[in-house]
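TASK: fixed-backbone design
INPUT:
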């Protein structure tokens, strides 16, 4: 039986382009925030996203740039490198899809880095 992930929070970590894509549905589950924070727990292999105020550590969500069926893109060589060091099995030029879970008790979504699924290029013949 296949899990229904169509409405699950999702992000994609693209190591080649130092990019983190946070899908629109994930932002909706956080209450359409203007700013978000990313938290990393290396010991638990976890990444969390939570809504935030405008702080030095917060990332602005540019809703005007997010069209239907698109996502918020964040670029950070340092963060993507650190995530790769937590998950040594990740390829240097790989893309990884992660499904998250909403944490009870607050608007926070947690992603288990060890459950990342590598996205392979589709080859058409």
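OUTPUT:
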């Amino acid at each position: 039986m296949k899990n229904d992930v169509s409405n699950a929070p999702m992000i994609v970590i693209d190591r080649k382009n130092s990019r983190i894509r946070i899908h629109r549905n994930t932002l909706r589950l956080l209450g359409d925030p203007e700013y978000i924070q990313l938290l990393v727990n290396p010991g638990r292999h976890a990444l969390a996203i939570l809504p935030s105020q405008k702080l030095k550590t917060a990332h602005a969500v540019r809703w005007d740039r997010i069209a239907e069926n698109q996502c918020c893109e964040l670029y950070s060589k340092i963060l993507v490198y650190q995530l790769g060091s937590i998950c040594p099995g990740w390829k240097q030029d790989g893309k990884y899809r992660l499904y998250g879970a909403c944490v009870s008790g607050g608007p926070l979504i947690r992603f288990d880095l060890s459950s990342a699924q590598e996205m392979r290029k589709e080859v058409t013949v």
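COMMENT: The first helix runs from residue 24 to 29.
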